[in-house]
Amino acid sequence: MTSEPTTDVGSGSSVERALATALTPRRERTRERLLDAAFTVFANHGIRGASIEAVCEAAGFTRGAFYSNFSSKEELFLALAERAMRQQLASLESIGKELEPDIVRGGCVDQDAIRTILSVVVTDPGDARQWSLMRAELELLAMRDPAVGRPFLAQEEMLRTEVGAAIERILADLGLRFTVDQRTAVDLLLSIYESSARAAVVARPTAEDGDAAPDTAVLSELVNLLVTTAD
């Protein structure tokens, strides 16, 4: 077991607490391991069923290490959402650079390419089932706890705004455009994909049933309506 000194997260000003928890390389590694462990523990047991001790045990740390980085499970949850958002945006920018200009053939949009663009911002390609479960837990917690709901909604707003801008840049580079305003298109596309992802988890409730990759048939039809060539 690895431990770090405990920080009194309840004392001092917000500035003092921020300085006390500044991310040294060692602390950053600890924080990332706790986030990795929490992702799995929360997805498997839910935030109500998971304890701080379980997260610490999965990460190989003591409670002292946990409280040196997070004041509560709820704060940890929001940090997970923030990290996921940044990872998704980075993946989106990366995949945009890899797409070939022949994504448009004979005036038709390559549906597989568009699905690839969307998939990186709504799921973890390594484990679609686990990410869908984690996403559901985040939403439930946000609905139940206003203190979590407000910052969660702010994160969601930021994500959708940045995702929309990134997708629009990619489409413009490929000679494509949305047929409706950017925010409406992004809301529709992400909502349909997330709904399909949840349905896939229900259909395959355990890992033994195979990865819960969402059905993208409806998404393909929606892409046909929302994406067209730029004239």
From TrEMBL:
<feature type="compositionally biased region" description="Polar residues">
    <location>
        <begin position="1"/>
        <end position="14"/>
    </location>
</feature>
<feature type="DNA-binding region" description="H-T-H motif">
    <location>
        <begin position="51"/>
        <end position="70"/>
    </location>
</feature>
<protein>
    <submittedName>
        <fullName>TetR/AcrR family transcriptional regulator</fullName>
    </submittedName>
</protein>
<dbReference type="InterPro" id="IPR050109">
    <property type="entry name" value="HTH-type_TetR-like_transc_reg"/>
</dbReference>
<dbReference type="InterPro" id="IPR009057">
    <property type="entry name" value="Homeodomain-like_sf"/>
</dbReference>
<dbReference type="InterPro" id="IPR001647">
    <property type="entry name" value="HTH_TetR"/>
</dbReference>
<keyword id="KW-0238">DNA-binding</keyword>
<dbReference type="Pfam" id="PF00440">
    <property type="entry name" value="TetR_N"/>
</dbReference>
<feature type="region of interest" description="Disordered">
    <location>
        <begin position="1"/>
        <end position="20"/>
    </location>
</feature>
<feature type="domain" description="HTH tetR-type">
    <location>
        <begin position="28"/>
        <end position="88"/>
    </location>
</feature>
